[in-house]
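Retro notes, item 3 of 5
We never archived the inputs for the NAP complex last cycle. Fixing that now. Sequence and ligand:
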Amino acid sequence: MNKKTIAITGSTGGLGKKICFHLARLGYDMIFINRDIIKSKALADGIMLKYPKTNISHIIMDLTDFNSVKTATNELLTHSFNTIILNAGIYNVPLKKLNTGYNNVFQVNFVSQYYIVKKLLENKNASLEKIMALGSIAHNYSKLDENDIDFSTYKKASKIYGNSKRFLMFSLFELLKDSNIKLCVAHPGITLTNMTNHYPKIINWLVKIGIKIIFPSPKKASKNIIYALNNNCSYKQWIGPKIFNIWGKPTIKKLKTCEDAESKKIYEIAEKIYKNINI
Ligand SMILES: NC(=O)c1ccc[n+]([C@@H]2O[C@H](COP(=O)([O-])OP(=O)(O)OC[C@H]3O[C@@H](n4cnc5c(N)ncnc54)[C@H](OP(=O)(O)O)[C@@H]3O)[C@@H](O)[C@H]2O)c1
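Structure as it came back at the time:
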């Protein structure tokens, strides 16, 4: 059997690391797309110690820096791989307007990763079979606001984050609807990673203890993403934990909170954004 290769963004994060150890155990080679080469190489070293037959290469990309995104995407286009996992994401960080005109949460979670997908499709990467995007339950609570595309005027981090995930998930459903490249949106439920690190120290400590006690570990939560590798979602379905989208075995479910008119509008806006930044 030919060895398959998976490219993954944000592999040095809490879930990313666990996903990569699972992938190495299953015999995949990997292309890490990370912003920090030292962390990226340290993760590769850890994996190689346990799974020495794994081939790992590194591409450095900072998703907040659009020049870096362009350069690194060009480099990615020279590689051969079967699946890309769009895993990098930020949640409760101080909002910053970037030179694309969008805030950092919208750009990291959506704009930059949508750009990567568009370039992969345009360049007809022959080996590419599947695109996987990390969704979140938070997408449910952030309906499209055409007057504030990236939710920069919104106060709640969960809404700003949810909006960016809603854009990522539904723009990709529309973009890949009739494509022969499969899309699978997967989510881990809720699990303790570095996502809450920007909370004030004491709050973060309390939140972390709470999440650790109540919710599944990142190792267990990452199994939802691994399950999604070999199981496909149809249009507007996703894979995640069975019970309340938080606990239990990975299950395919229908996404119910985004009507067709809204997802088509999200896609239309995504295409406009891509056109404007692709210069
Ligand atoms: N944890 C949860 O409960 C939960 C729930 C639903 C969905 N998710 C999704 O799961 C995915 C992984 O998140 P996580 O929970 O593992 O969080 P995490 O531990 O904070 O990991 C986030 C990853 O994104 C990378 N990243 C952040 N900003 C970046 C930038 N500017 N350029 C390039 N990479 C950047 C981080 O890089 P560094 O390692 O360099 O910091 C890290 O690898 C995210 O898409 C998140 O939205 C998580």
